[in-house]
Specification:
It is built from two helices and two strands; from the N terminus they run E-E-H-H. The longest helix has 10 residues.
């Protein structure tokens, strides 16, 4: 079975979810942190990904393995278009430290 561990902010509150069999490299004790957003932080995500041979916070990792996803949604006239870096700056998110986002 595929393993899934996530923390997300639904616009109102933080949610945590873990499904599947715990992997040997995981630190499941962190999943009981009092604050939900502290249960799975970006540093932990980077550790888990490294254990699986992935480097999601390293731009060079995507060089030949990237996939472009396009949407057919209409973007309203006057909509603000932001790069990832601009959106992170606007939301106060430090790259690789999403756990610092207070929502």
């Amino acid at each position: 079975m595929v393993r899934s561990v996530m923390v997300s902010h639904n616009g109102t509150r933080w949610e945590f979810n873990a499904l599947g069999t715990v992997k040997p490299y995981e630190r499941p004790d962190a999943y009981s942190a009092r604050r939900v957003k502290d249960r799975f932080i970006s540093a932990t995500l980077a550790e888990y990904c490294a254990a699986a041979g992935l480097a999601p916070f390293d731009e060079t990792f995507y060089a030949e393995n990237a996939v472009l996803v396009e949407t057919k949604l209409d973007i309203p006239d006057g909509a603000r278009m932001l790069s990832l870096q601009e959106a992170q700056r606007r939301l106060g998110i430090r790259p690789g430290a999403a756990d610092t986002f207070d929502g």
